[in-house]
Write a structure and sequence with these properties.
Blueprint lengths: L2 H14 L2 H17 L8 H13 L4 H20 L29 H10 L8 H13 L4 H5 L6 E2 L4 E4 L8 E4 L2 H18 L18 H9 L11 H15 L4 H8 L4 H5 L6 H16 L4
Antiparallel strand pairs: 1-2, 2-3
Length: 297
Amino acid sequence: MNTQLKSKIEKYLFERYTYQTAQSYLYTITRFIERHPNAHQLKLRAIELYLAQLKGQKHTISYRNVTLSAIKAFYDFLIDKNKIQTHPCKSLFLSEKKPSGKNFNDMLTMEEMETLFSVLPSRYKCTLNRNKVIIGLLIYQGITSQELINLKLQHLNLDEGTIYISPSSKNRSRTLSLKPRQITPLINYVNTEREKLTHDKYPYLIVSMRGMKMTVDSLHSIIDRMQGAFDKNISPKQIRQSVINYWLNKRKIPLEDVQTMAGHRYPSSTEKYIQKDTTKQREVINRLCDDILGGVK
């Protein structure tokens, strides 16, 4: 931007905005014009793509809104000086909900989760298999804490190698296959440990040391003993999210199947776990910008 034009824009801004806002807008406009020397000729689509490019560079919605406000001020200036007749982005607004996707950097890998299955500690010999059953159901079936403590003995079918998960206010019912390595701990728990902890007519599968239905807090205290095993948070919720991520993004199981396996009532709940290829997104945005802006004379 030449000195004369910058001086005129600066004067225009400082007459209409606070000192800080004017300084911020002037800086943003300068960068915008450096990127687009023919800025006075740009159409709405080109400005939208410029903002999309900023998004692809991981700039926040707040930053992009300030940028848009500065660009609008620039075109207000051009109209005021009779340089253009129509404001290209007067009605353009950016609105974005807080991202509802998952932080995939915090997810546990299946190798890490299987390590938990192998080394999960138990204070008492009589709960060793019970704890393996718990971690196995978390990492292989991806069930919630509430679903786990609500499991009943009749829901377990060792002959068919399946377990039935009852419906809840949030999730649908489903029948899930058990992994071969889960069978032996389940048999040892049901036929030996559980019989010592409670009477055979007690309905719930997972029981406490007192022979009663386990609480969510008790379940979490078992998992909390694994904190520090990895540089990541370890909780039943985090394990479930990691399992769904593994199904969807590593094993590439179809979305509708993962929705069923996770018990999600709505596809949108499962879609949050889709990892988007941000590198490809940036390449597409840059290509579109080059195609459109390159053709503007």
